[in-house]
Amino acid sequence: MRLICTVKVDASRMCPGAIRTGIQRPRASTLSFGRRPNHKDEICLLLQSAQDTKGMRYNVVGNIVHIFTKFINEGKCTIRLKEPAHDLIIQADALLLKSFLRVIKLAFVKNSFEPVLKVPVLNEKYFRPKIQTKCFVTTNAEYPTLQGFPRTTQHLSIVDLQKKSFDRQILRLNQLRSLDLSKNCIRSLPVELGSLPNLAELCLAENQLGKSPPKSWAWLNGHAMKKNLITLDLGRNELRWIPPYIGKLIALRTLSLNHNLLSSLPFNIGFLSSLRFFSLQENLLDMLPGSVQRLHLETIDVSGNTFNPQGFEGCKIDPYKLDVPDLVEIAAKAVLRSRLRYGPETIPRGLVKYLDEALYCECGEACFNYHLRSIIMFDLRAIAEKCVLSMDPRIPLRCIFCSERCRYRRH
Ligand SMILES: [Zn+2]
């Protein structure tokens, strides 16, 4: 049996004074166990790596001091050996590691004669650890319905298969970095997608996410998604609305919303501080939110929208008068100002929705029902090095102000 893993050999127990020099760097390795070809009663573990192709053999029977499995669910364990006094610090896929240890336990802990015979003879030929990290499914016949995707997959592409639903086995791919599900018929995604720990690129173009109800966008609010997502493509999804969660994707660098039916964007879109490439081609936008003035972009593409500067010249101030806000609004402002974490597990869902739908003044202060509005004309060249436009670079912005002072400062 073989396990493809990363192993760090800690030999510091052999010379306790030299703790640092005894620890090897983690190496991509193959750990196999079986009977030695010429000594069939001797059972050993064979550790091979690209740097040590002959490998190191460790006797197993009576030679394992302890197996530390406290972090086995994270795919980590340590095998402490008596002779030589090495600790093998192993990291691998959690399920594969568990089954590897289970087989060792079955064969040796019972120490019965019969299981030993069942242990295969060790094939000492060098086994290069071949880790499949890319998986491209282009036809339904290739789809691994029964065997599933390799656990080591980092790049998964399931394109143009007319899939109507999201395959939940993708949620088991903890190493997944990029996922391309374009040209399918997916209408909603599971909330667990937002917890995939390494997902950085997500392409969902040419699906039907515009038909999904607001609650099925919760995946976009997942903790890992907010922290790690760098590229998001939601083009050609018949979207009429974008959830405000999108403004919380702090690592997002490229956002494509091309060819949808959007007439407005969330007010917090300008809080995407990492955003560099922003594409809004062919939508129904007549204005952009005032917060876009905070962006620092390399490219913005707003061509094919219905911006109509006619009639928006100068500044138009709403007759809406600023009143004394209610207590809910004051408390909600304090929560957002202090960046307190909130969620349905701590406060009622109605309040979560209320907080998520906050509007933002140019000064960064959140506003709810009590605010001032105005429309200003803004030259997009002030926020982007390259602008792709159908017409005038001056675009109407819908601005929100938390106070008379902020509005006065702007005009
Ligand atoms: Zn303000």
Automatic annotation (TrEMBL):
Pfam families: LRR_1, PH_LRR1
Record-annotated PIF1/LRR1 pleckstrin homology domain positions: 1-111
GO cellular component term, pick one: cytoplasm
Entry-linked InterPro entries: Leu-rich_rpt, Leu-rich_rpt_typical-subtyp, LRR_dom_sf, LRR_domain-containing, PIF1/LRR1_PH
Keyword terms of this UniProt record: Leucine-rich repeat, Nucleus, Repeat
Entry superkingdom: Eukaryota
Protein name: Leucine-rich repeat protein 1 isoform X1
Species of origin: Neodiprion lecontei (Redheaded pine sawfly)
Taxonomic classification: Eukaryota, Metazoa, Ecdysozoa, Arthropoda, Hexapoda
